[in-house]
Amino acid sequence: MAAALKVIVAGAGVLGLTSALALARAGARVVLTDPAQLGDNASGVAAGMLAPVFEAALDALAAPHFDLLMGARDLWPELARSTGVALDRSGALAIGRDERLERLEQALTRLGVRAERLSARAAAEKAPGLAAGEAGALFTGDDWRIDPDQALAALVEAAAEAGVEVRRAPLHPDEACDWRLLATGADPVPGGLAPELVRLEPIKGHILRAGSLRYQGAVVRGEGIYLTPGAGGMVIGASMERGASDRAVDPAQVERLAEAGRALFPALDGAQLAPGVGVRAGTPDGLPMVGFSRTAGVMMAAGARRNGWLLAPLVAKTVTALVFGAEPGPYAARMAPARFEPGGGAY
Questions:
Q1: What is the signed CA dihedral for 134, 139, 144, 145, rounded to 10 degrees?
Q2: Is 80 exceeded by the pLDDT of residue 191?
Q3: Which DSSP string corresponds to 189-252?
Q4: Which fold, 6-45+148-200+285-340?
Q5: Beta 6-10 vs 179-182: how paired, if at all?
Q6: Which fold has domain 89-144+201-282?
Q7: Domain extent listing, the chain
Q8: Is 143 helix (H, G, I), strand (E, B) or coil?
Q9: What three-state secondary structure class fits 144?
């Protein structure tokens, strides 16, 4: 009987965790290594939105990849079922002036999606406490969410049950293995193992948590702000500060988010808001680098920008197929690191 492939996964954010789990379930011997505490990364400082519809409608980089984003979202019910991740399908609301909602409706029509136009009263029923304004809202039930804290804990437990060895330690580049999978996001990789990762851009982001406000309802997306439920209180986000890689709290960003949040949810007035800062990594086209490096024995799963949670099961499925020499699926070439090199990214 042939020995199992050994894969060392560096980075215990959602891309690393889901990939480690999928590899172990497929029969690999997997070591998951990360020196940080669980959740002390971009995956932990997040709202956990699985939002292909409004991401594609609101983000020019995401729009061309709507089919891929939907394909990733459709993998979530099975992942949630098999790991105990709680999947919230309460949907999402976009609010704003009539002109904004009309632009969004047009964008959704181009994507082949129809969102429901709600009155202000109907919007407030889906998002209790929301000051929706006269224009009302657009609602989609196709955008879902998870709670990052609960999901990370469930994924770690599922990975351990599948036989993944979890180490709270940095990657050791000289440890013997068949493959190294770099899922370290914007963090530097020791030894320059994957030169392709130089294309990643750090993106600093602030979120706020209102621990005293236990909100249950749909995700709300305003102009330059979103608000979601959270186990630790309502989550208000997020800033996107391209090129910044520090995790220092910026009072100006905190105040901007707090002011916008209070305008949408008056109950936030006077609430204690705890800031969190994470650093994501992005590529020029908004999709992660998933696949082989030019460095022998090295693979990558990094650069998901603001859609790491959404894309995680698709990334894990692609990585696992590539490791075992199987057909990687219809989206693999679009995520291949070689797409930024002369000649493109076909496997």
A1: 0
A2: no
A3: PGGG--GGGGG-EEEEEEEEEETT----S-EEEETTEEEE--TTSEEEE---EET-------HH
A4: FAD/NAD(P)-binding domain (3.50.50)
A5: parallel
A6: D-Amino Acid Oxidase; Chain A, domain 2 (3.30.9)
A7: 6-45+148-200+285-340, 89-144+201-282
A8: coil
A9: strand
Question: What pLDDT shows up at residue 344?
Answer: 65
Contacts of 40 (CB under 8 A, 6+ apart): none
pTM over the 0.85 mark: yes
State the pLDDT at residue 21: 98
Could you tell me which of 176, 158, 191 has the C-alpha nearest to residue 6? Answer: 176
Mean pLDDT of 106-128: 94
pLDDT at 71 over 80: yes
Q: At what angle are helices 308-323 and 76-83 packed, to 10 degrees? A: 90
pLDDT of residue 1: 40
Question: Is the pLDDT score of 270 beyond 60?
Answer: yes
SS (H, E, C) 15-70: HHHHHHHHHHHCCCEEEEECCCCCCCCCCCCCCCEECHHHHHHHCCCCHHHHHHHH
Query: Token pair for residue 209?
Result: 């948590």
Q: Which of 235, 218, 82, 221 is nearest to 148 (CA)?
A: 235
| pLDDT of amino acid 188 | 78
Between 123 and 212, the more confident residue is 123
Residue tagged 């992005």 (tokens): 282
Q: Name the token pair of 139.
A: 């609602």
The pLDDT confidence band at residue 346, using thresholds 50, 70 and 90, is low
